[in-house]
Write a structure and sequence with these properties.
elongated, single chain, two-stranded antiparallel sheet, 208 residues, alpha+beta, 2 domains
């Protein structure tokens, strides 16, 4: 037989457990109600959209092997690296359309990253803040790019020229493929070298 004092203790513990259970349930219910009320009253924030600006794209044409500037209105982020990726994405989007004068499949997703670094080599007194742009291409874009020295060169120079036209501090450009150095674009254009933006002449009728 259980002693009287132990029965009292057990009874007290049982009552305390029941009381605690009820309190916890009420607290949980109130917290849930506050959470739902907060979700209902929280203002809905519209996604941030970069303002549209005028961008100059240096678009290659296989018809006469030229690189011609085109002005487009694009949403351009303030961050220079993101801005560089946006203009290059639009350039490659043009190349991926069915009626492209310089066909190259892949579109905007072919530019995975653009890094902006201080220019390498001897400093140019006229451009002390010159930058090197490192363009990271996707492996799928490189694998699908048409092969040929001229068509590959047009792609590379149009990328270099477009970068310089929209970010004048960019005077040098290097290329990576999936984050690593790659020998050529599609068997011809050298991707191991540093390109100068001045090599891409944005003048109609000028040939690389």
């Amino acid at each position: 037989m259980i002693p009287r004092h132990q029965r009292i203790i057990l009874s007290v513990l049982l009552v305390a457990s029941l009381v605690m259970g009820v309190v916890l349930w009420q607290l949980r219910d109130r917290a849930h109600q506050r959470l739902m009320a907060g979700e209902d009253s929280a203002p809905t924030r519209a996604p941030e959209v970069a303002p549209a600006e005028q961008a100059t794209l240096l678009v290659a044409s296989d018809q006469d092997n030229s690189i011609i500037p085109q002005v487009r209105s694009l949403p351009l982020p303030a961050d220079p690296g993101s801005r560089a990726r946006a203009v290059l994405g639009k350039l490659l989007e043009i190349y991926s359309t069915p009626d492209a004068l310089h066909p190259a499949p892949g579109g905007p997703g072919s530019i995975t990253q653009v890094f902006l670094l201080p220019a390498v080599g001897e400093k140019d007194p006229q451009h002390p803040d010159a930058q090197l742009a490192v363009v990271n291409l996707s492996g799928a874009f490189v694998a699908a790019h048409p092969s040929g020295l001229l068509t590959e060169t047009l792609t590379v120079l149009s990328v270099c020229g477009t970068l310089h036209a929209n970010l004048p501090r960019v005077t040098q450009v290097r290329f990576l493929v999936d984050g690593a150095q790659h020998s050529t674009l599609a068997g011809h254009a050298d991707l191991t070298r540093t390109y100068l933006a001045s090599e891409a002449v944005p003048t109609e009728g000028t040939h690389p």
